[in-house]
Design brief:
By secondary structure, the chain is an alpha/beta fold. It is built from 12 helices and 14 strands. A 7-stranded mixed sheet has the order 1-9-8-5-4-2-3, with helices on both faces. Strands 10-12-14-13 form a 4-stranded antiparallel sheet. It binds pyridoxal-5'-phosphate. The site of pyridoxal-5'-phosphate (PLP) has 13 residues, from helix 3 and helix 4.
């Protein structure tokens, strides 16, 4: 029987296992933060920012960053309608309002013009999610952010390895967040990172991340503000240190898989994939195929074709505003249209050329009817 092709799967070697084992055996007492401190330093240096705080998830990192900006009731935060729910949930939890705007047809990331039109006196931030490893139009976003005095925040959960004019994704906003969930390019099982080069914001998030206990506070069991408990464990960080030693290998492989797909599918009429304009290096987290509207190929048909080929491909994000807890924003036409006719292709580190060939056959058969 043909084997099922998974859509993501982490690459864990003896190196990661040996660090995790060391943390489990010895990383206690006075050593209980050693791997965490090391992982934070390796990661922030890799991205090129001054400060990093390892967290239990990207969602937690986002919530603490927004909380440190004092975002709450009456405030609005602009983000793309095409997003994972994790980007919107922290805004809602803080009592603020997510404002969903449309995406660009080529990068599937937030449309800067739509973002600018959505600005009101209540707007406190714009979140730039680098979707599937593609890059937001950071020149336009940073420029309009400057002009309106509104900070740009990067949700870089999907963008490890991505670069924009030579700058790493996650190094350009007021702060950025990363995810090390098991499906991401670098994994610690669950986990995330808050990054910033802003010293004040760093101090605030550090305090929030430690149950609201400021680091200068020498009274025991004394909190200065009501904070959070979104920390990463030492064992998870040990896995992360192993993954960081292999970060170039991990991101290069993602890009090689995207390029193998593009070599095979890029010339098919009516098919587009993750774009890489000259100033952009894609992180290639999720190689994605979008079928032109006029081909008439739709989600159910795409899913059925992959299912019968025993390939675990995933649907493109539904617009957040299409989901029951929000009001639909049908003006976000591109976000509402692309998700009807697109699919994420498998892209795990150890997939073979034959796996890629099998995936390409399904796409080709769909297009050629
Ligand atoms: C994975 C992901 C998150 C959430 O990451 P967690 O670590 O699971 O909280 C947030 N935003 C985007 C864009 C993601 O892809």
């Amino acid at each position: 029987m043909t084997e099922t092709i998974a859509y993501t799967k982490p690459s864990i070697t003896e190196l990661e296992v040996s660090y995790a084992e060391d943390a489990a055996r010895h990383g206690w007492g006075s050593k209980c933060y050693d791997y965490i401190i090391k992982f934070e330093a390796l990661f922030r240096d890799h991205i090129g920012v001054a400060y990093g705080i390892a967290t239990s998830s990207c969602t937690g990192a986002m919530q603490m960053g927004l909380a440190a900006m004092d975002i709450g009731h009456g405030d609005e935060v602009i983000l793309a309608d095409t997003n994972w729910i994790a980007t919107a949930a922290p805004i809602v939890h803080l009592g603020a309002t997510p404002v969903f705007v449309d995406i660009l047809a080529d990068s599937w990331c937030i449309d800067p013009e739509a973002a600018e039109k959505a600005i009101t006196p209540r707007t406190r931030a714009i979140i730039a999610t680098h979707l599937y490893g593609n890059l937001c139009d950071m020149d336009a976003l940073l420029e309009l952010g400057d002009r309106h005095g509104i900070p740009i925040i990067e949700d870089a959960a999907e963008a490890i390895g991505a670069r924009y004019r030579g700058r790493a994704a996650g190094s350009m906003g007021l702060f950025s967040t990363f995810s090390f969930h098991g499906t991401k390019t670098l994994t610690t099982g669950e986990g995330g990172m808050f990054l910033t080069s802003n010293a004040d914001l760093y101090e605030k998030v550090l305090t929030l991340s430690n149950h609201g206990r400021a680091r200068q506070q020498d009274k025991q069991f004394w909190a200065d503000v009501v904070g959070y408990k979104f920390k990463m464990s030492n064992v998870q960080a040990a896995l992360g240190c192993g993954q960081m030693e292999r970060i170039t290998e991990l991101t290069d492989r993602k890009r090689a898989i995207l390029h193998a797909y593009k070599a095979e599918l890029g010339s098919l009429n009516g098919v587009s994939m993750n774009p890489e304009p000259g100033h952009v290096l894609s992180g290639a987290w999720m190689p994605t195929v979008v079928f032109d509207d006029n081909l008439g190929i739709r989600r159910d048909q795409i899913q059925a074709a992959f299912k019968s080929a025993r390939i675990d491909a995933r649907v493109f994000f539904y617009p957040l505003s299409a989901q029951p807890m929000f009001e639909p924003v049908r003006e976000n036409k591109t976000a509402w249209s692309i998700c009807e006719r697109a699919i994420n292709l498998p892209s795990f580190h150890d997939m073979t050329d034959h796996d890629i060939f099998r995936v390409c056959r399904v796409v080709e058969d769909l297009v050629q009817g």
